[in-house]
Specification:
- It comes from Meinhardsimonia xiamenensis.
- By secondary structure, this protein is α/β, with parallel strands linked by helices.
- The protein folds into two domains: 127 residues, Aspartate Aminotransferase, domain 1 (Alpha-Beta Complex), CATH 3.90.1150.10; 235 residues, Type I PLP-dependent aspartate aminotransferase-like (Major domain) (Aspartate Aminotransferase, domain 2), CATH 3.40.640.10.
- It has 15 helices and 15 strands.
- It has a seven-stranded mixed sheet with strand order 3-11-10-9-6-4-5, sandwiched between helices.
- It binds pyridoxal-5'-phosphate.
- Pyridoxal-5'-phosphate (PLP) binds next to helix 5.
């Protein structure tokens, strides 16, 4: 590497550090769970996407271990060459059935599902209308697609209608609305009934990324379209196997047969990236079975979210309103979020500060997330730590 290029990178890192935006990773030395071992200490984990607590569930571990014993470690091929295992097809059928869609297609991650979705389906004559708070992978997927782009302010239905009208006025052939079902930084639900109504009015397709909903939101955990009773009107769903459904790796698109078929032929992250390991597929099927029958888990998760939210509010923290198990504690500047996370770490609570570029400047926060397996004792311990850290920083009295 040339010295100039090294200096360029070092300056970039110094700038990130000076702004308090440097991210530090703290390695876990135990399974992912409600309690984790980090740097020799046991911490209460309040920042995993492990909503149903399945990441270390013995049933998933057994299913994965058995599949690995029977079918080996890896596929060493993309799907269309020789990487398709029977377990891939079984998982795709199970996902489609669970979500009420014709079919589903697996990707290495939902980042790839969103990254590969738009480009094969839409061309330069078409338009995509996208919520401003959509996940980075949707934004990147749209960038890779030649369709015209329209953006509307988060959840703003007048903005959505204006964008749809603009798309129609510019002569777009096909129009697709793209939105997160739940916005991951805030825990806000997209207004799906209104979105579907506008889609009907303007003849648009609806795509929903339900990563922060599938498995634990709506009846049987089927996600935000089912919660809003518009599952029949949401055409395309994307989601992850890396959050509530076991937390390992993998993503998918579920939708009409023609969509899935076109993606199998044309989606670049599907064609040019390795197939999921059989063990992940076997355990994911078990995770869906557990989620589908998991009303008790969902009840405890919702209960925990209420208790935690009420507890933080009573302490005087500024929260974003809502009922999702994502509970963001708003702290303003990145440095405050960093300091708060560091203090909580010292007090035995594992949380992470979120700041630019993952949220806008000035809206730094600690995103806490609930898990069905957290007990009242755990949550009380968490509230005590938040109270102590908040008081030490003069944020609460
Ligand atoms: C986590 C997340 C993704 C990425 O999922 P991976 O499977 O981890 O790549 C995509 N979209 C949303 C809304 C997410 O929250």
């Amino acid at each position: 590497m040339t010295p100039e290029f090294t200096r360029h990178l070092e300056e970039m890192l110094a700038e990130i550090a000076a702004q308090g935006l440097m991210k530090r990773e703290r390695p876990i030395a135990s399974p992912q769970g409600v309690h984790v071992t980090v740097e020799g200490r046991e911490l209460l984990n309040l920042c995993a996407n492990n909503y149903l607590g399945l990441a270390d569930d013995p049933r998933l571990i057994r299913a994965a271990a058995e599949a690995m014993e029977r079918f080996g470690y890896g596929m060493a091929s993309v799907r269309f060459i020789c990487g398709t295992h029977e377990l891939h097809l079984a998982l795709e059928r199970r996902i489609a059935e669970y979500l009420g869609k014709d079919d589903a297609i697996l990707f290495a991650a939902c980042f790839d599902a969103n990254g590969g979705l738009f480009e094969p389906l839409l061309g330069a004559q078409d338009a995509i209308v996208s919520d401003s708070l959509n996940h980075a992978s949707i934004i990147d997927g749209i960038r890779l697609c030649k369709a015209q782009r329209h953006r509307y302010p988060n959840g703003d239905m007048d903005g959505l209608e204006a964008a749809l009208r603009a798309a129609r006025e510019s002569g777009a052939r096909h129009v697709m609305i793209a939105t997160d079902g739940v916005f991951s930084m805030d825990g806000f639900f997209a207004p799906l009934p209104e979105i579907c109504e506008l889609a009907e009015k303007y003849g648009a397709q609806v795509m929903v990324d339900d990563c922060h909903a599938t498995g634990f939101i709506g009846p049987q955990g089927r996600g935000s379209p089912h919660r809003a009773a518009v599952d029949g009107k949401v055409d395309i769903l994307t989601g992850t196997l890396g959050k509530a459904l076991g937390g390992a790796i993998g993503g998918y698109v579920a939708g009409p047969q023609a969509v899935i078929e076109v993606l199998r032929q044309r989606a670049r992250p599907y064609l040019f990236s390795n197939a999921l390991p059989p063990a992940v597929c076997a355990a994911s099927i078990v995770a869906i079975d557990i989620a589908e029958a998991g009303d008790d888990l969902r009840e405890r998760l919702a209960d925990n979210a209420r208790y935690w939210r009420d507890g933080l509010a009573a302490l005087g923290f500024e929260l974003l309103p809502g009922e999702h198990p994502i509970v963001p504690v708003m702290l303003g500047e990145a440095k405050a979020a960093q300091e708060m996370a560091a203090r909580l770490y010292d007090l035995g609570v594992y949380v992470s500060g979120f700041f630019y570029p993952v949220v806008p400047k000035g809206l730094a926060r600690i995103r806490t997330q609930m898990n069905a397996r957290l007990t009242r004792d755990d949550l009380d311990r968490g509230l005590e730590a938040f109270a102590a850290a908040g008081r030490a920083m003069g944020i609460v009295s």
